[in-house]
Amino acid sequence: MTRSLILAAWAVGVVLLVSCEVLSVVTKRRYIGFVALLRRWTDGRLRLAAFFIGWMWLGWHFFAR
Question: What is the reported pTM?
Answer without folding.
Answer: 0.61
